[in-house]
Design brief:
The protein is an alpha/beta fold. It is 32% helix and 23% strand. Helix 4 (91-97) links the parallel strand 4 (75-79) and strand 5. It is globular, with a radius of gyration of 18 Å. The chain binds oxa(dethia)-CoA.
C-alpha cells in the first residue's frame, strides 16, 4: 500500500513587535482606510531586537514538533524567500538550534508558494521511503526586503513563521495530504522581483539595495486565475466535489484575492480563511499561519476538508488538499 504523508503537528510564531496601518500612515503617503479596503491588512508583525529568519523558523518548528509529540524529525525542509544569508542555507542552522544536528536540512525558495513546495517535498520523501517524519517550516522576514519609502509594497508584507510535521501514514487517516499540484512559469518572472543582491545584479556591477518590486494589478489577476485553476485540478485529483470542501486556506496576499477566489469556486466568502488582517503577506509562512489561526479560532475542526492554493514570485503556484486531523497545539 502507498505510504501517505499525514499532518501530525502544527506550530506558528510571529515576532512580538506590531506595526499598525496608522503607524505606517505617519511615515508614508498612505492611510489605514486605503490599506484595509485594498488589502484587508490592519497590522503586521516585524522582526527587531536582533531576530532574523532563523529565529522565527526555530520558534515555529519547536512548536510543531511539540504538537506532534516528537523531539526531532528525519528531514527538515525550510521554505523561505528571505534566508538569513545567501550562503550558507538557513535550514541547517534551524535544525541544529532544534537539536537536530546531523539531520538533512535544506532551503526551498518558491516565493509565496514556498510552503506548498516544501509540503510536496516532504510528502515525496515519505512516499519514497526516504523519511518517516519531515518537519516543513515556512519562515520569512519580508519586512527586511521592502523599500521603507515605497507605499506600494511596505504596507503589504509582514514577518512570521509556521510549521507542520508530516509522518508516514495512510490516505484514510485524518490529516492525510491527499493531493498536491505545483506549477511554474518563468515568463512571469518580472511580476515580483528582488533584483538587488543577486548574481545578475552583481555580475552587472549593480549595487542597488535588495528591495521588492511588484506589478500589483497583473499579479492580482494571475493569482486569482491560477489559484482557481489549480484548486479545481487538485479537487479533481482527489475526487472531491467543490461542495465537499469546508475551507479554502489560501496564501494570504490580499483578502480581496481570497474572496474573489471563493466566489469563482462557487463557495461562500466565509469559507475562505482570512488571517491577513493580523499578519500581512508572509509568503512561505502564510498558509501554516492561516491554518494555525483557523484551528485556534475553532473554525477548522478535525475531519474538515481543506484546499490550500497559493501563487507567488517565479511565478510559482499550486494547491494541496487534505483532511484536518485532531491535534494538540
Ligand atoms: O504574495 C505574492 C502574490 N502577491 C499578490 O498576489 C498581490 C496582488 N496584488 C494586490 O494585492 C494589489 O494589486 C495591491 C494591494 C498590491 C495594490 O492594490 P490595487 O487595488 O491593485 O492598487 P493599484 O496598484 O492599482 O493602485 C491604485 C492606486 C494608485 O494610485 P493612482 O495611480 O490610481 O492615482 C496607487 O498609486 O492606489 C495608489 N496606492 C496607494 N494609495 C495609498 C498604491 N499603494 C497605496 C497605498 N496607500 N499604500
Amino acid at each position: 500500500m502507498a505510504r501517505s504523508a499525514v499532518l501530525c503537528g502544527l506550530g506558528a510564531w510571529v515576532p512580538p513587535h506590531v506595526v499598525t496601518n496608522d503607524d505606517l500612515a505617519a511615515l508614508l503617503d498612505t492611510s489605514d482606510e486605503w490599506i484595509r479596503t485594498r488589502t484587508g491588512i490592519r497590522q503586521r508583525h516585524v522582526i527587531g531586537d536582533g531576530l532574523s529568519t532563523v529565529d522565527l523558523a526555530v520558534e515555529a518548528g519547536a512548536r510543531a514538533l511539540k504538537s506532534a509529540g516528537l523531539s526531532e524529525a528525519d528531514y527538515l525542509v525550510l521554505a523561505t524567500t528571505t534566508p538569513d544569508r545567501l550562503c550558507p542555507p538557513t535550514g541547517p542552522e534551524v535544525a541544529t538550534r532544534l537539536g537536530m544536528t546531523g539531520v538533512p536540512a535544506f532551503d526551498v525558495a518558491a516565493g509565496c508558494s514556498g510552503f506548498l513546495y516544501g509540503l510536496q517535498t516532504g510528502r515525496a520523501l515519505i512516499a519514497g521511503e526516504i523519511a518517516d517524519t519531515v518537519l516543513v517550516i515556512g519562515a520569512e522576514s519580508l519586512t527586511t526586503l521592502v523599500d521603507p519609502d515605497d507605499r506600494g509594497t511596505r504596507p503589504l508584507f509582514g514577518d512570521g513563521a509556521g510549521a507542520v510535521v508530516l509522518r508516514m501514514g495512510a490516505d484514510d487517516e485524518l490529516g492525510a495530504v491527499l493531493g498536491v499540484n505545483l506549477h511554474s512559469d518563468g515568463s512571469l518572472s518580472e511580476l515580483i522581483t528582488v533584483a538587488g543582491g543577486g548574481a545578475r545584479a552583481r555580475a552587472a556591477g549593480d549595487t542597488a539595495p535588495a528591495h521588492i518590486t511588484m506589478h500589483g494589478r497583473a499579479t492580482f489577476a494571475h493569482a486569482v486565475k491560477h489559484m482557481e485553476e489549480v484548486t479545481r485540478q487538485t479537487l479533481a485529483q482527489v475526487g472531491w466535489d467543490i461542495t465537499e470542501v469546508d475551507h479554502v486556506v489560501g496564501h494570504q496576499a490580499n483578502a480581496r484575492i481570497l474572496h474573489a477566489l471563493a466566489k469563482r469556486l462557487g463557495l461562500a466568502e466565509e469559507q475562505a480563511v482570512v488571517h491577513i488582517e493580523e499578519v500581512g503577506n508572509t509568503a512561505s509562512a502564510s498558509i501554516p499561519l492561516a491554518l494555525h489561526h483557523g484551528v485556534v479560532t475553532g473554525r477548522i475542526k478535525p475531519g474538515d476538508r481543506l484546499v490550500m492554493p497559493a501563487f507567488g514570485a517565479g511565478a510559482t503556484w499550486g494547491a494541496a488538499a487534505m483532511t484536518w486531523p485532531q491535534l494538540e497545539i
